[in-house]
Amino acid sequence: MDITVIQQGSDIHNGQLCMSEKHFPCALGRSGIVDDKREGDGGTPAGVWKLQTCWLRSDKWPTPPQYLPTHLIKASSGWSDDPDDPEYNCPVTLPHIFSYEKLWRLDDQYDVIITLDHNLTPIVPGAGSAVFLHLAKPDYGPTEGCIAISRAHMREILPFLTPETNMIIQT
């Protein structure tokens, strides 16, 4: 079952995530949906992306998904966002000498993360990193380029997500 994401309304960072007959509000990157994603541009990359893996904090999300490979987020979990890093756009263990995004967060947005295969095969330095489906801020404020939905909506769709699920992000 595929997921479609579109921009909705006048704010470019507001979107709608659709899966089967269900339609949920979602947050997009501060620059909206973009055709040419670059590191740090705040854009959500348009395209068709496979879901890869689930990362979760077992202290805040105790039930792993049934079909996606799952990794536990630890205090030392990070994701490289530095184009000069040989491990760019890959999970890293902290501390890390290059720039990274910390996965263990206090704001709950990364209690559960679904990675997309954006910029993975091959990894192109500077073409964007850490593009995830994760939990939204309470006000659905913009992301740095990810797609974010409510905790309740993530609970609703997570049981149906597989590595064969496409996330279709449309401009």
Can you describe what's shown?
With 171 residues, this protein is mainly beta. The chain has one domain: L,D-transpeptidase catalytic domain-like, CATH 2.40.440. It is 4% helix and 35% strand. It has 1 helix and 14 strands, in the order E-E-E-E-E-E-E-E-E-E-E-E-E-H-E. Strands 1, 2, 3, 6, 7, 11, 12, 13 and 14 form a 9-stranded mixed beta sheet that branches. A 3-stranded antiparallel beta sheet has the order 9-8-10, with no helix packed on it. Strands 4-5 form a two-stranded parallel sheet.
Secondary-structure map:
Elements (H helix, E strand, L loop, with lengths): L2 E5 L6 E6 L2 E6 L5 E2 L9 E2 L1 E10 L13 E3 L4 E4 L10 E3 L6 E3 L9 E5 L15 E4 L11 E3 L1 H7 L8 E4 L2
Parallel strand pairs: 1-14, 4-5, 6-7, 12-13
Antiparallel strand pairs: 1-2, 2-3, 6-11, 6-14, 8-9, 8-10, 11-12
Question: Notable features of this structure?
Answer:
single chain, about 170 residues, mainly beta, L,D-transpeptidase catalytic domain-like, 9-stranded mixed β-sheet, 3-stranded antiparallel β-sheet, 1 helix
Summarize the structure.
This protein has 171 residues and is mainly β.
Specify the overall morphology. Answer: globular
Q: Can you give the helix content as a percent range?
A: under 10%
Order of helices and strands: EEEEEEEEEEEEEHE
Give the tally of structural domains: 1
Largest sheet: 9 strands, mixed
- Radius of gyration, in angstroms, nearest whole number: 15 Å
Separation of the first and last Cα atoms: 20 Å
CATH domain fold name: L,D-transpeptidase catalytic domain-like
Strand elements, count: 14
Q: CATH first level: which class?
A: Mainly Beta
pLDDT < 50 runs, ≥5 residues: none
How many helices does DSSP assign?
A: 1
- Average predicted confidence as pLDDT: 98
- CATH architecture label: Beta Barrel
The share of residues in extended strands comes to 35-45%
Question: What structural category characterises the helix and strand content?
Answer: mainly beta
**Oligomer class:** single chain
